[in-house]
């Protein structure tokens, strides 16, 4: 039975794949935050801002005072709970423009082109066409069903109701010449347009990584999540002269444990925190260079 585990049994198990950070990218994992899937603040889409700057839900990161921003300190709230930032984000379901994706490929990342990635944009999505009430307020002419997925675990929909601001902003931008210049889902995401939201159309609850990917797999015995577990360091070792990562050191309630993996260690702790458990990588590299293979993919 998939479970939230306990630190002692978690540390005694050798996992095939060990993932630190159970946010949008991770799955079976050590997660520093808690499981808040029955919390109305998480499940009610518009309540997201009520979680920001609250250390129970978010890491409460702040910038330094911004010299060119009149000394202002700006909040950056990455999610701290099962589902990570997808649990506290705005629910917009959209993606970048074709030229942004193609640029990544042109900078030497093979396989990164719009045409190669487009099928994967559709894979997670189950699209709900807009109800008639939406068509009265939103320009739906830019929506082409063929550019949407229909079988994925992420349900997305348009809200059935619009307040006056929502009704007004799209026409205003169009009037200013700042409307969409092509199809946002077809590779032209510039200009003002209404996105779909990752909201279940039947009951208007938020769909996020925890509900879409963990819940349907919760019965799998091989899937274990340990919440409240902070990964402090990837364990590096030498194996036949090569650098490998056989595990991760983590803490729960001030106690330190080591989790083990036979195949891969993956860090999915988000863009800002991912480097932290790698603190010792540079030392290990200099000790065991050249690094030709990582057992742990980091
Ligand atoms: C306020 C906000 C609004 C956003 N709005 C949108 C939107 O509307 N649409 C959209 O597409 N995108 C939006 N985004 C961006 C999107 O949510 C993120 O890009 C995406 O969730 C990042 O996924 P991730 O897996 O890389 O990281 P995260 O989802 O942040 O997951 C990282 C996880 O790792 C955990 N973690 C961190 N350090 C450790 C550690 N040392 N040990 C154990 N666990 C750790 C964290 O608690 C977290 O659960 C928004 C983001 C934010 C913050």
UniProtKB/TrEMBL annotation:
<comment type="similarity">
    <text>Belongs to the GMC oxidoreductase family.</text>
</comment>
<dbReference type="InterPro" id="IPR036188">
    <property type="entry name" value="FAD/NAD-bd_sf"/>
</dbReference>
<feature type="domain" description="Glucose-methanol-choline oxidoreductase N-terminal">
    <location>
        <begin position="79"/>
        <end position="102"/>
    </location>
</feature>
<dbReference type="InterPro" id="IPR012132">
    <property type="entry name" value="GMC_OxRdtase"/>
</dbReference>
<keyword id="KW-0274">FAD</keyword>
<protein>
    <recommendedName>
        <fullName>Glucose-methanol-choline oxidoreductase N-terminal domain-containing protein</fullName>
    </recommendedName>
</protein>
<dbReference type="InterPro" id="IPR000172">
    <property type="entry name" value="GMC_OxRdtase_N"/>
</dbReference>
<keyword id="KW-0285">Flavoprotein</keyword>
<dbReference type="Pfam" id="PF00732">
    <property type="entry name" value="GMC_oxred_N"/>
</dbReference>
């Amino acid at each position: 039975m998939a479970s939230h585990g306990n630190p002692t049994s978690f540390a005694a198990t050798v996992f095939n794949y060990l993932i630190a950070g159970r946010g949008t990218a991770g799955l079976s994992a050590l997660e520093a935050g808690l499981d808040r899937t029955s919390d109305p603040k998480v499940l009610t889409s518009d309540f997201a801002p009520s979680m920001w700057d609250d250390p129970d839900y978010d890491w409460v990161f702040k910038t330094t005072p911004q010299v060119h921003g009149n000394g202002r300190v700006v909040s950056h709230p990455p999610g701290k709970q099962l589902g990570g930032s997808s649990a506290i984000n705005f629910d917009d379901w959209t993606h970048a423009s074709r030229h942004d994706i193609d640029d990544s490929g042109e900078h030497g990342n093979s396989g990164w082109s719009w045409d190669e990635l487009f099928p994967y944009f559709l894979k997670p999505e189950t699209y709900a066409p807009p109800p008639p009430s939406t068509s009265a307020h939103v320009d739906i002419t830019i929506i082409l069903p063929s550019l949407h997925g229909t079988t994925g675990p992420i349900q997305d929909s348009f809200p059935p109701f619009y307040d006056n601001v929502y009704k007004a902003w799209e026409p205003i931008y169009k009037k200013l010449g700042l409307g969409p210049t092509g199809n946002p889902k077809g590779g032209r995401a510039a200009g003002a347009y209404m996105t779909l939201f990752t909201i279940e159309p039947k009951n208007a609850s938020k769909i996020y990584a925890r509900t879409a990917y963990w819940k349907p797999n919760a019965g799998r015995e091989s899937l274990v999540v340990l919440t409240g577990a902070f990964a402090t360091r990837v364990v590096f070792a030498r194996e036949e002269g090569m650098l490998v990562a056989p595990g991760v050191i983590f803490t729960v309630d001030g106690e330190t444990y080591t989790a083990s993996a036979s195949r891969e260690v993956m860090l999915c702790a988000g863009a800002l925190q991912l480097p932290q458990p790698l603190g010792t990588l540079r030392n290990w590299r200099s000790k065991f260079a050249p690094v030709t293979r990582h057992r742990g993919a980091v």
